[in-house]
Amino acid sequence: MRSVRARAALGATVVVALALFAAGLAALLVLRANLTDQAGLQAEVAARETAGQLALDVPYDKLETGDEEDHPVQVTDEDGRVVAVSEDLEAISGTGTDRVTPQPPPAAPEKGDDDRDDDDGAGADPGRGEVSTDEPDFGNGTATVDGDRADYRFASVEATNSAGLTLTVHAGAPLAAEQRAVASVRAAMLAALPVVLLVVAGVTWLVTRRALRPVEDIRREMAAITASEDLGRRVPEPASRDEVARLARTTNETLTALESSVDRQRRFVADASHELRSPIASLRTQLEVGAAHPELLDVEGAVADTVRLQVLAADLLLLARLDAGERPGNARLELGALVREEVAQRTGDRIPVTVVVSAPEPGGLEVTGSRGQLARVIGNLLDNAQRHAVSSVTVEVRGIRGGVVVAVTDDGAGVPEAERMRIFERFVRLDDARARDDGGAGLGLAIARDVATRHGGRLTVAGAGERGARFELWLPVSR
Fold it and tell me: pLDDT per residue over 226-248, tens digit each?
């Protein structure tokens, strides 16, 4: 079953069926208990009426038991002998004994015994009996009256006659009404259950279909986008504020990010091709001239173009690794020492670099990461400063709470505030940089920012007072 609508309809139907079954069973049990209690109350009333007659010493064969078919009566003595039954009672069960034939009472005591008993019971009131006020015992059984067998609810009540003999009256009330009511209700429930389940399944199907219609629209539009490869299209967003609407918005955000990524990739390829075209064309021209006229070969120019190609290829390879999600190393580095080492290796700088290192405590300038990548960031920042500086370049390394800052400051023209975010984009060079330097490809700052981000840090640019620019690299301190 691959359809969500079908699974939802089936699940709802099963849940409702189980709920209706449980509710119906509980209702039947409560109904049966109430009707059984009513039958027990009727049986108790009939039993107490007969017990009252026994307490008044009404002879057994003169007892009035009412309607024998509705209230069959059986009277037993202390020894369990049946002393009286209602008329036309042919069989009985559930009262302790199934005998329905009255037995003769025991023989009367001798005269002397009676006189002795009278003497012993002087002062007693022999003319009064009583009916027990205790809660009667109840039970279910059957009785056959005038050939008709039926189920009954029996109540047992004790009575004592004036002679002190305790008798037990078992009177029944028919359970036919209870059985008919329960059967009728059960039949009605069973007849209505399929209809209710069909309604639940149909309503669930329709509601689910309506709720999932935007999902189908999203799927259809995504299929069209995949077929056309047009990432500029967007899926429809429903006006509701439910999960489907959030899914549509997230899908459109994903498409926007994907379109932006593809556009960046296309621009990257185009810009890389453009940047590679110039040195390759220059190098080819020089080699062709050298092949035809060896005396005119510009060896230095060819070497410079080759170096430029090598640097550009290295930059493109590093960006490709960063875009692929390459994780930085986990080596512990002391940034102050790394900066001093990088500055010491730069022997061809036109402007001397001043290094200032301030560590609040031993080990306070340690960070975790890739030594090669972080050295590349520092080198790129120094290259950028050398390119724009007029007379001074300063590198300051200091520890702050939770991190280390490397600040590279120059006294050049600075970066206009409107361009401070754009200079970190790939292949972006400001107009004055293009006019003054033809060697850069606009990848140094982009590489520096990406490396800083992947090390958990950040790279920002700001003004340096009245003149110049200040680039700050922040990296979290090692833990």
Answer: 898 888 888 888 887 888 888 89
Confidence of residue 108 (pLDDT cuts 50, 70, 90): very low
Scan for tokens 């810009």, then name that residue. 271
Whether 464 and 409 have beta carbons less than 8 Å apart is answered as yes
The pLDDT tens digits of the residues spanning 385-424 come to 998 899 999 999 998 888 999 999 999 888 888 888 888 8
Q: How many residues does the chain have?
A: 479
User: DSSP secondary-structure letter at 145?
Assistant: E
CB 22: neighbour CB atoms within 10 A?
10
Locate all alpha helices (DSSP H) within 229-332, ordered by sequence.
243-292, 299-323
Q: Pick from 409, 407, 410: which is nearest to 389 by CA?
A: 410
Tens digit of pLDDT for each residue in 290-311? 888 887 777 887 888 788 788 8
Domain 243-323, second-level architecture: Orthogonal Bundle (1.10)
**Which tokens belong to 53?**
């007659």
Report the run of H or E that residue 356 belongs to, with start and end: strand 353-358
Q: Tokens 């005591």 — which residue?
A: 109
Distance between CA atoms of residues 389 and 351, nearest Å: 8
Assigned CATH topology for domain 331-476: Heat Shock Protein 90 (3.30.565)
- Using CA atoms, how far residue 311 sits from 299, 379, 444, in Å, is 18, 13, 11
Distances (CA, A) of 240 to 170, 253, 387: 71, 17, 55
The single-letter DSSP state of residue 63 is -
Query: Cβ distance 379 to 311 under 8 Å?
Result: no
- Which residue from 409, 393, 416, 387 is spatially nearest to 473, judged by alpha carbons? 409
Q: What is the pTM assigned to this prediction?
A: 0.51
Domain boundaries, the chain: 1-107+127-230, 243-323, 331-476
